[in-house]
Design a protein that fits this description.
Length: 266
């Protein structure tokens, strides 16, 4: 076998070739290949990357025998003496998570352990990780709900939607059905719930009051026979007794809800 290449067989007996390299006393798998020569070329390429500091992530191209993720892993290990299995490149207080040479996300160093063990998937503009067998939107890690709309419910303060560092994320609306509004210098919170369209439940002084109003509207709709699995807002600052007291005194537009239910039944 050529250097860096090991033969293997698939379950059906077909032969293929695996490439690997030992670098900084660590044995690193480089991938599997149909032909022995290709596996050897991957080994040689990995040797170049790990020995030549001028080779950087931007040098990657479609002619490479290595997968792009492996290219990032090797360069990061070479430069930072830390082997990470996911395509991460470490900086002093943050890191890049790469999809392609000029396509990456930015995270705080505090997130390193999580993203070194969870690969990020991207589909239709949404970013997910596989966690306990489920696809989890990475926004939820930062307290941003799945229903949240950028610009309305949260903002990237520096205008860069790929920068997930905590100092760059500002959450505007934290609860289901609640939206912060401004009228002149006055700030209030508007609650809406979806029946056969968005129904205005009410306008409230505080975000928590608006969140409770959403819960109360959802309960009222169920009592009126509109059986939809509305999500509930969980408000950490209230114990059960305090929550029930606030719930009881929160006013909602019951007549609007009743009319909306009647329209769905007509």
């Amino acid at each position: 076998m050529l250097p860096g290449v090991y033969g293997a067989k698939k379950k059906d007996g077909t032969s293929y070739y695996r490439a690997s390299i030992t670098y900084k006393n660590k044995h690193i798998s480089l991938g599997s290949y149909e032909h022995e020569k290709d596996a050897h070329l991957a080994y040689l390429e990995a040797g170049e990357i790990t020995s030549e500091s001028e080779i950087d992530i931007d040098r990657y191209n479609s002619k490479s025998m290595l997968d792009f993720k492996k290219w990032v892993v090797l360069i990061n290990y070479r430069d930072n003496d830390m082997y990470v299995k996911t395509p991460i490149y470490l900086k002093e207080k943050f890191f890049y998570y790469y999809f392609a040479p000029e396509d990456y996300l930015i995270f705080d160093s505090d997130d390193l352990f999580y993203y070194s063990t969870h690969s990020i998937m991207r589909r239709g503009g949404h970013l997910f990780v596989a966690d306990f067998g489920m696809q989890v939107n990475i926004l939820s890690r930062y307290g941003i709900k799945n229903f949240a709309v950028p610009g309305r419910d949260y903002q990237f303060l520096n205008g860069n939607p790929t920068d997930f560092r905590s100092a760059n994320l500002m959450i505007i609306n934290s609860f289901h059905g609640v939206q912060k509004k401004e009228s002149g210098v006055k700030i209030f919170y508007e609650t809406k719930i979806h029946v056969n369209g968005d129904i205005l439940v009410g306008r409230y002084r505080t975000q928590t009051e608006a969140a409770i109003a959403y819960n109360k509207a959802a309960d009222t709709l169920r009592e009126l026979g509109f059986n939809k699995n509305f999500p509930k807002n969980y408000i950490e600052e209230y114990d059960t007794e305090s929550y029930l007291r606030e719930y009881k005194k929160t006013k909602i537009a019951v007549k609007r809800l009743l009319k909306a239910v009647e329209k769905t039944e007509a």
